[in-house]
Sequence to fold (130 residues):
Amino acid sequence: MGLTNVWIATLSDGLLRADQVVGLTAHATPALTGKPPRWLLDVTIRAPAGSGSADGWDVGILHRTLIQIPAEPVGAPEALARLLARLDREDAAGVISPQPAGPPSGTRAVSAVRFGFHPFEDDPDSPGEA
Fold:
């Protein structure tokens, strides 16, 4: 991907450059006592993550959560993949913001995720301002 000028807003880790994304997944968290499970939409990035102890070092893949929602985000990874492909073809620059949306019409057990794209050209700040 050539998405060096497209950034994705994460839930708690700031912005992630889109060309670093190598995977899109949705998965449920375990239910805790008194709390229902939640669903996470994650991106996998191409950077190893490691942790170690006296017994050795463990290296795995690094995930960043984009959004947390109450039910399965059916179709959300595919929708984000389509948006990334379109933005790559357009040589776009800007920020993708995942937002929760109401469930699709006629469904109850799924959550919808909408991906807004905010091009840098629409940015009201002039260059050099924060």
User: Anything to note?
Assistant: The chain has one helix and seven strands. The radius of gyration is 17 Å.
